[in-house]
Structures are given as C-alpha cells and as structure tokens.
Write a structure and sequence with these properties.
alpha+beta, Beta Polymerase, domain 2, 2 domains, five-stranded mixed sheet, 10 helices
Length: 241
C-alpha cells in the first residue's frame, strides 16, 4: 500500500506522533519506521493498530518517559510505538526472527536510516521460533479448553481472535521450505497442501474472522483445529534445513 492511499485520518495520526517523538527525543532519535498491516495493505481504519518503530541510541527510562507522554489513542486507531536501539536490533535476530522478518518485509522509513534493510536471519533460529510458537499456542488452547470446560463460545472467540497470529507462524514455516506466499487465504491453503492438513477448518475460521459466516459448531472446529496443529507440530519437529 502506498502511503498516499492511506486514510487521511490515519496519516495525520502518525504524522502527529512522529512530530511529537522528534521534538521529545531530539538527537536520541535515529529512525522512525512504519510497519505492520498499514504497510502490508491489510490495515482497517479505526480497527487496526498503527505500528511505529522508533530507533534510538539507547533505551533508558528517560526515553520511555518521553514516549509515554505522547497521545497514542486517536480517532484513526491506536498507535502502538515500539522503541529499540540499533544495537538491540542487530543482536536480537536470533531471538525474534519472525518479528524482524515481518518488520523487514512490511515497513517504510518515515525518517532517518533503515536498520532493518541488512538484517540476516539464520533459518535454524527461525525454525526454532516457529516450533516454539506453535507448541506454545497448542498448550494455550488446551488450557483454555480445560479452564472453560469446553465452552463453545470461548473456543470460537479464541479461534477468530487468534487466527492472524497463527497465519504469521504458518507463513514462516512455509518460508523454511522456500514456499513464499503472503495473503492470508493463500497461506492457509498452502500450509494445508504442504503438510497434509484439513483445509476446510482453516478456511472456515478465516471466513468467520472476515464476517462472511458464523462457525456452526465452535467446539468441533476447535477440536479439529487443535488436531491439525498437533499434526503440523510433529512435522516441524522433524523438519531438516
């Protein structure tokens, strides 16, 4: 998405935030980067967050105080500032490969240099995080089911609310196999094709999230989705690079 295509209220919101950040941080501020759905083209005004990365010399309490004083709730959506030092970025690609790959692919520099451009991600670190994310989500689903005693509404809400975060992990699992896709339906279809998963349940949850249909049987959908995740997890554990 080109910045000139963005809703004027959204553009005014992040322009105002950047102005205040530069005034408050002065010479400590090295870069201001817009990233996430607003750059990928999936941003929904007043519903999606506005993600801004502020790169500074060093993150300390004074920097945090300065940023905390900037209004982040706007009529165009909530501004979510992330503040990192350039050193932190360079030394953390092994810990957060998914997050940095996402920012690297979907970002635009509003001011300063681009610390994301030259980042290198080790596929082994990416595989490890994909497996960790997947297995953590499986545990979360199991605990939710136990704690709510299999409440269908809670199960359905979880699937709809968390599908996007699953899709991000799926996309990078595919990337480990050099299968490069980006759109949500395409990612879901391809992860099923590549790993022999039940496609219908993935697309059903996506359509429910998009408001195109209601999940007919949330408890059954939850069980089928959980089963698919366990099957995928077993295969990722054996994936060789």
């Amino acid at each position: 998405m080109e910045l000139n295509e963005i809703d004027i209220r959204v553009k005014n919101a992040f322009d105002n935030f950047v102005l205040q950040a530069s005034e408050r941080l002065k010479n400590s501020l090295k870069s201001v980067i817009l990233h996430g759905s607003i750059v990928s083209g999936e941003h929904i005004p007043r519903h999606s967050d506005i993600n801004i990365l502020l790169v500074v010399d060093k993150v300390d309490i004074d920097i945090l105080d300065a940023i905390a004083g900037i209004k982040t709730k706007t009529s165009a959506g909530r501004i979510v500032p992330l503040v990192l030092s350039d050193n932190y970025i360079q030394n953390s690609t092994d810990t957060f490969p998914i997050e940095f790959l996402e920012m690297q692919k979907h970002h635009t520099v509003l001011w300063g240099n681009d610390p994301l451009a030259g980042l290198k991600i080790d596929p082994k670190n990416l595989r490890h995080q994909c497996e960790w994310e997947l297995k953590s989500k499986i545990i979360t689903m199991q605990q939710l089911y136990i704690n709510t005693r299999g409440n269908a509404r809670a199960a359905g809400d979880f699937l709809i609310r968390n599908l996007t975060s699953f899709i991000v992990v799926f996309k990078h699992i595919l990337g480990l196999k050099n299968v490069l896709v980006d759109g949500q339906p395409e990612v879901l279809e391809k992860i099923c094709d590549e790993f022999g998963l039940e496609k219908d349940i993935f697309l059903e949850i996506l359509h429910a999230r998009q408001g195109k249909l209601k999940i007919k049987d949330a408890a059954s959908s939850f069980a089928r989705f959980l089963s698919a995740l366990n099957k995928l997890s077993e295969q990722i554990d054996k994936l060789s690079l």
